[in-house]
Structure formats: structure tokens, C-alpha cells
Design goal:
By secondary structure, the chain is α/β, with parallel strands linked by helices. It contains 10 helices and 15 strands. The strands form 4 sheets. The protein has a 7-stranded mixed β-sheet with strand order 2-10-9-8-7-3-4, sandwiched between helices. It has a 4-stranded antiparallel β-sheet with strand order 11-12-15-14, covered by helices on one side. Helix 4 links the parallel strand 3 (102-106) and strand 4. Helix 3 runs parallel beside helix 4 (115-124). The protein is globular.
């Protein structure tokens, strides 16, 4: 495994460090040098002879195997998708709905995990139940586990669909407990893991996840438009493809022999040509992440975010993100009662080359493993005091 310390502040590996103090990996990440090199390699090969003498298509299979390893799935349970929305839409459109079926989620989800279910409500007569966020005793914002489980227990609940980590608060849900409850009570569990894969451990077996989707452009350090979709093997044949084209079938290369038999693995959810360049770049990023290990990466992110939380609290900011137990994540959302968040955001970006985000009326910082303690300290220093 690679030494994680070798990447902290390493501008050769992460060129963004030459220009920015970048703390928005929960938004759109800067890709590492290896991912940029993969894009250039693809461009050179595409210009010099297209697919001839390349490893493009075997490399896509390696990407699936690598993604499966990182989330403890089988390679045949992984499909390549454009984004998280596509993966969630496969689930929303691929199930046989009955009038009155309930879909349980939270009221603070990213829209990719809301609108597909609203369409099911509109077109199939289902009911969408959204559990609200509450203010905890320590001032953080959480969606209580017991209230999610209460709604999941309703006899008409068909599926629970939630983010592993909420995009605005940074709350990490106890997916393992929710998954165990769902499996024991014959409910389905769908997880939006875009804010966790690449930063935190994700184990679809231990967590009893049925479906999972994640684009690669956040913590996986890939480009936009390249994501993964997981479908538990037992559910593959019970889940209809979102789109059907030339590649969903068992013998896709027999172009003149029409046999509409869908593939028995997650490849049935892939309908045609894909963005090779983006996926080859994502493969390079995931190889880097895998060489370090999710465990060390998570430890590093916790160290950095804890340092940030302590500094913010000392300076008078309210910490919105829960940090106790296993609820912490790579997202630190915080608020000022004295200063306009928009002014802070603009000043950091324009005058100090420091990038955070504005989400749901809060400031949000999301450092990755290659950020440095000095960068964290500089961010705290730049924030106006209370």
C-alpha cells in the first residue's frame, strides 16, 4: 500500500495544490495527475488509431472489478452509469410498483434521490415519505435513526432510499442498522453513496444494501459523468433496465442475430456506448485510492476535519455537522450568526484562492486526504472572527 503521508501537499500528484486551497470535494473535485494522464492517454490513442492496439475495453472490466472490491461486491453486480441520478432512476423505474407503496427517504436529500421517486409517485400512485432533519442537543442537524426506522416499519413501505452521507449537513447514517432492519422486514434499501465512496468504508454485504449509486466526481476523485451502480445479485433479474439498446443483451456483438435475452449480470443495465475517457480516468483515480486504502484515507480525513471543527468552534462558528460516534464524515458544515455567508464565500475564493461551498444556508468545507494541516489552519485564519 502507498504511504498516505507522501500525498499530503504533493503538488505533483495533485496539481490543484499549486493554485488553490481546495475544500469542496463534496462538490466537484479536482482530479489527480494520474487521472489527467489517463485522459491524455485516451486522447492520444483515439487520435492515433481509435481502439486499435488499446486496452480500453478490458480496462472497463478492470474498473468494475476495482469498484466491486472497494464496496465488497462481486464484479457482476457492478454497472457503469453516467451519474448517480441514472443509477437511482434504474431502481425507481425498474421495480413493479403497486398503488399505495411507500418510499421512505429524508427531507434533506440531494435532488438526485428525490425527483426519481416523485416521478414514481406521479406515474404509479406511490407515496413519498420524507423524514425531516432536527436540531440535536449539541446544535448539529440530524435525521434521527429511530424516525427513519419507524417509517420503514410501515407495512406499505416498499423501499428506503437515502444518502449514506447527507450533502448539506454531512450526517453519516447508520446504514448497517437500517439495512439489517430492511432485510429482516423484506424492505429494499437503496443508497446514494456519492458522498462516501473514496472517503469512508462502504461494505454492501455488511450493510445489507440492495442498490447503490455513486458518481465519481467527488470523493472518488474522478471526472464528471462516470459513476457506478450496484445491484445485489438476487435482485438483478427482478429489476428492469432503465434503457434498452445494443449492449444489454447476452450476445451483444452478434449484431445481425437478434436475441433479446438480457444479460444475467449488472451489464443488463448498460445500454450502449459509454464515455470511455471519463471511465478510464476514474479507473486511474480508484487505483490511487485503492493503493492507499480506504481505512487510512478515512483516518486522515477525520484528523483534518476534527482540526477544522476545533478551530471553527474557537472562532465562534456554529458546527452544523454531527461529529459524535460514527455520524461524522468528510463534510463540515458551519454557520455564522454575524457575517453573511455569501461574503465569506466570495472573499475566500477571489482574494485567497480558497474554495469552500454554500449549501442550504450554510458554509461547507470538505477536505480530502491530500490536503494539509497548514491549509486547514489557513482556512480558519482567513474566516472573520465573531
Amino acid at each position: 500500500m502507498s504511504d498516505i503521508a507522501a500525498y499530503a501537499g504533493n503538488a505533483d500528484a495533485f496539481p490543484v495544490l499549486r493554485k488553490w486551497n481546495f475544500f469542496n470535494h463534496a462538490g466537484v473535485c479536482p482530479i489527480p495527475q494520474v487521472a489527467a494522464d489517463a485522459l491524455r492517454k485516451f486522447a492520444d490513442e483515439a487520435a492515433g488509431g481509435a481502439y486499435l492496439a488499446t486496452t480500453w475495453y478490458p480496462d472497463l472490466d478492470k474498473l468494475k472489478a476495482l469498484a466491486a472490491k472497494i464496496i465488497n461486491a462481486d464484479r457482476g453486480e457492478i454497472a457503469l452509469v453516467k451519474n448517480t441520478s441514472e443509477g437511482i432512476s434504474i431502481v425507481a423505474n425498474g421495480l413493479d410498483w403497486q398503488w399505495g407503496d411507500r418510499i421512505v427517504t429524508t427531507a434533506v436529500e440531494y435532488p438526485a434521490n428525490v425527483y426519481p421517486w416523485m416521478e414514481v409517485v406521479r406515474s404509479r400512485g406511490a407515496k413519498l415519505v420524507m423524514v425531516p432533519e432536527e436540531r440535536a442537543a449539541d446544535g448539529s442537524r440530524v435525521v434521527p435513526l429511530e424516525k427513519i426506522l419507524k417509517e420503514a416499519a410501515d407495512p406499505r413501505t416498499r423501499i428506503v432510499s437515502l444518502s449514506h452521507v447527507e450533502f448539506a449537513s454531512g450526517q453519516r447514517h447508520d446504514v448497517a442498522k437500517i439495512g439489517a432492519f430492511c432485510r429482516a422486514n423484506k424492505k429494499l434499501l437503496n443508497v446514494d453513496a456519492i458522498q462516501s465512496i473514496g472517503a469512508l468504508p462502504v461494505d454492501v454485504r455488511a450493510m445489507r444494501i440492495d442498490y447503490l449509486s455513486a458518481d465519481g466526481h467527488k470523493w472518488m476523485l474522478g471526472p464528471e459523468g462516470a459513476g457506478i451502480f450496484y445491484c445485489r445479485r438476487e435482485l438483478i433479474e427482478r429489476t428492469r433496465p432503465l434503457m434498452v439498446g445494443a449492449m444489454n443483451v447476452i450476445d451483444a456483438l452478434a449484431y445481425g442475430s437478434y436475441d433479446y435475452t438480457l444479460r444475467p449480470d449488472a451489464g443488463r443495465f448498460e445500454c450502449g456506448s459509454t464515455s470511455l475517457a471519463s471511465f478510464l480516468s476514474l479507473k486511474a483515480s480508484l487505483e490511487l485510492i485503492d493503493s492507499i486504502g480506504i481505512g487510512p484515507i478515512a483516518e486522515r480525513i477525520k484528523l483534518l476535519t476534527e482540526r477544522l471543527v476545533v478551530g471553527l468552534a474557537r472562532k465562534g462558528y456554529e458546527i452544523v455537522s454531527p461529529r459524535t460516534g460514527e455520524q461524522w464524515s468528510g463534510i463540515v458544515s458551519f454557520s455564522s450568526m454575524r457575517h453573511r455567508h455569501e461574503d465569506i464565500f466570495r472573499t475566500l475564493r477571489r482574494e485567497h484562492q480558497t474554495e469552500v461551498a454554500l449549501r442550504e444556508g450554510r458554509l461547507r468545507a470538505s477536505p480530502h486526504f491530500y490536503n494539509t494541516e497548514a491549509q486547514i489552519d489557513r482556512l480558519i485564519e482567513l474566516l472573520p472572527a465573531h
